[in-house]
């Protein structure tokens, strides 16, 4: 088959399929929910899952992928920690005839034959939605609005794209100014540490835009420690909508959350099944997502799965 389909000898029974999944790490509530959902989906489908946690290090992910190639798994799926630097290992998978599925995060490779499908969110759109809320919130302001941006992992698709979408939209109002932008590596501890430092150098800050809930939750701790009221003295906008984030939004400590769904397991199984059957999955599958205000968070919280 062209580019190595799992269906070379015809489809395998699902209980004979083996899939290797190279996860980013366990950096956030989003990631934990994503891992749980993927493991549960494999369990339910009766497909064997080899799972590895790269602790947010690209070299670990590359090692894991190489070991899956060596073990001749049927499909490799992974969520690339950063966008660049994948061509070599993906070419090795291709040469071995093992199809690769990208979940959650993209690679910036020009060679689209290196993966069969990319399943995940539109991160630029998420950044735009966050920017739109800020634009509306400060529509009537004639004063400068000072914004701190807490970036995700440097070089990661969601960090690059969420910054881009946000910047594009807030550019419509010259009063909205990002006065500082630093990475908190998508972690709570990172968000807290960066906010602590940036509050000192930017005492007039009005709003924090965090690329995920966890960094926003870390920022809340730093703001409270500085004797200020999160959500009031300093507004907070985040991305993800995991339970802890939604609770903070319901409590008024976060002002707005753009949803990013970690529930990719069922769709990943569908892609793997299609590959096994010799079908060609959609090259790009975009997750459907919404946004939450405080009232909407209060309403959604009781039924929130993660
Ligand atoms: O937003 C963040 C996680 O890649 C979409 O990674 C994912 C991001 C998510 O650490 O919380």
TrEMBL record:
Cellular location(s): Cell envelope
Keyword Signal found: yes
Chain segments annotated as coiled-coil in the UniProt record: none
Species whose genome carries this gene: Agromyces humatus
Family statement drawn from the similarity comment of this UniProt entry: Belongs to the bacterial solute-binding protein 2 family.
Protein name: ABC transporter substrate-binding protein
PROSITE patterns: PROKAR_LIPOPROTEIN
Record-linked InterPro entries: Peripla_BP_I, SBP_2_dom
């Amino acid at each position: 088959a062209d580019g190595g389909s799992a269906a070379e000898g015809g489809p395998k029974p699902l209980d004979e399929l083996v899939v290797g999944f190279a996860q980013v790490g366990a950096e956030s509530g989003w990631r934990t929910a994503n891992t749980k959902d993927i493991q549960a989906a494999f369990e339910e489908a009766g497909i064997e899952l080899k799972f590895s946690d790269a602790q947010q290090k690209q070299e670990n992910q590359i090692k894991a992928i190489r070991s899956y190639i060596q073990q001749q798994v049927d499909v490799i799926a992974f969520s690339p920690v950063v966008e660049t630097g994948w061509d070599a290992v993906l070419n090795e998978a291709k040469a071995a005839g093992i199809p690769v599925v990208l979940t959650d995060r993209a690679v910036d490779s020009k060679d689209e034959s290196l993966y069969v499908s990319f399943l995940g969110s539109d991160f630029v759109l998420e950044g735009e939605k966050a920017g739109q809320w800020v634009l509306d919130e400060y529509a009537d302001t004639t004063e400068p609005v000072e914004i701190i941006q807490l970036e995700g992992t440097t070089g990661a698709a969601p960090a690059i794209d969420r910054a881009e979408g946000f910047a594009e939209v807030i550019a419509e109002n010259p009063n909205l100014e990002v006065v500082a932008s630093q990475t908190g590596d998508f972690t709570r501890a990172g968000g807290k540490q960066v906010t602590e430092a940036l509050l000192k150098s930017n005492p007039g800050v009005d709003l924090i835009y965090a690329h995920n809930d966890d960094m926003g939750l870390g920022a809340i701790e730093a703001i409270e420690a500085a004797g200020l009221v999160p959500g009031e003295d300093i507004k907070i906008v985040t991305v993800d909508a995991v339970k802890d984030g939604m609770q903070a939004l319901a409590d008024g400590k976060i002002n707005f959350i753009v949803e990013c769904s970690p529930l990719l397991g069922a769709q990943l199984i569908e892609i793997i099944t299609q590959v096994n059957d010799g079908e060609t999955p959609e090259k790009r599958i975009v997750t459907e997502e919404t946004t939450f205000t405080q009232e909407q968070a209060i309403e959604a919280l009781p039924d929130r799965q993660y």
